[in-house]
Amino acid sequence: MSDKIYKMILLKRRLCKRLEIVVIAMLAISFYISVLLFGGFKGPEIIHVTDLHRCPACYGVTVCPELYSNQIILDSSHWSNMFNAKNIYHGYTKSSRRVILKKLAHDWELNEFDSKLCSEWRLNNDCKPVQLLNMTNIDDKVLDIVEYNITWPDTEPRKGLVLCPYAYSIYDLLQPVFSNNKNNYKSEMLNIWTMLSINPEPIILQVLPRSKGWPVPAFGGVCGRLEVVAYEGEPLSSLLHVAWHRKLNYAQKILEAAMDFTFKHERFRFYLMDWSLDNIVVNERDEITFVDLEDVIVLDKHISPKPELVDWYKRYNRESIGPGFSFSIENMCKHHLSDHNLWAACYILIGDESPLLYPIPKEVNASRPYFDRLLSACLNGDDRFKTIRKLQHVIEEMLNDEKILRSGVS
Questions:
Q1: Residue 162 forms beta bridges with which residues?
Q2: What is the rounded average pLDDT of the residues 131-152?
């Protein structure tokens, strides 16, 4: 997909999210009026949300026992469970831990996927999902969708995961997703094909588990077309009123996450494509978590490059493509290392859309005039890797400065 088209799609998606918030707010008012007039209402039951009958064209069944034995329960007191345009539900476990249950797509997207399912597999129009277990070309279909996403034709929207530069790396990426039961291989591959077609987030959360220090939600499992993850906090976009030194702490952790996604995994790099304050949440311990991991470029850094990858061993520094959050998928996939995550992190801090650290308090500008210059160099400079290291050092020193902490700059 061309960079211009992808940017338009990304902007359209963000606009839709904001419109959804307005619609949900209006529905919330209607809901509370209805409660006052007519009494309480019950939200949907889990059995009606999982779409388990669509398996194996679903995400899997790993958490079904917990859902169907009421170990995980929908929160009937949460108003968004009543009017849910985003198919995101709130719930809790028997131990009272809050969880989020996500269908990972809008109803119209799931309906569109189902309407094309039979033709996609060259079956009769009235086929049943269970018939997919008789297919012999499941591995080929998984490779096809990965290959499709690498080529991203300009005339078609990209769907699912971008794994580059070669599609065959998918099998190594998926190792943490497979169970030890070889008898389930076909079913699991169909689950993977479905997630790649609809939303690859459950795959990413298993490849980058929170238990190993990745700043992503703890993965609870999947049941039908429902993903269960831990509730990890409120979005940064709702915390712009907090004291500036807390924002500085968030900024340090965002920069650390950018480096981790780029370097931490021994085999792959993970370039996040939808960085925004809405997609980074903060818990009561001021720990950050990246949510909404639908759009990720996964780059295999240990491939043997073919002759056409002439610049593979060169570092790709994001060039000036245009204003706003824009980037080149093609260039990232042609180089073994890109500074995309670093640039994106700095865009969150001082970019065009609700910058986290701007305005910088006068006291900080007076005592450390070089701090703003470092931020600008991170966003617009030539060597972000070098700049990030300096920036992290300066922020660490500032976070240990009692004058800043005591002043409560805001």
A1: 297
A2: 91
Phi and psi angles of residue 225, each rounded to the nearest 5 degrees, phi first: -110, 45
* Residue 316 DSSP class: E
What are the two backbone dihedrals, phi and then psi, of residue 307, each rounded to the nearest 5 degrees? Answer: -55, -30
Whole-number Å distance between alpha carbons of 66 and 54: 19
Query: How far is Cα 78 from Cα 91, in angstroms, rounded to an integer?
Result: 9
**Whose structure tokens read 């030539």?**
382
Query: pLDDT, tens digit, for every residue of 187-221?
Result: 999 999 999 999 999 999 999 999 999 999 999 99
CA distances from 246 to 275, 361, 398 (A): 20, 13, 11
Which has more confidence, 157 or 67? 67
Amino acid (1-letter code) at residue 2: S
3-state SS, residue 15: helix
Residue identified by tokens 């026992």 is 65
Per the document, the length of the chain is 410
230/323: higher pLDDT: 230
What mean pLDDT is predicted for residues 132-155? 86
Paired with 300 in beta bridges are 268
What the block records as the tokens of 340 is 């995309």
> How many Å apart are CA 195 and CA 105, to the nearest integer?
11
Count the neighbouring beta carbons within 10 Å of the beta carbon of residue 305.
14
Q: Is 244 helix (H, G, I), strand (E, B) or coil?
A: helix
Tokens in use for 338? Answer: 């890109």
DSSP, res 225: T
- Cβ 188 vs Cβ 208: under 8 Å: no
Tokens read off for 283: 């818990």
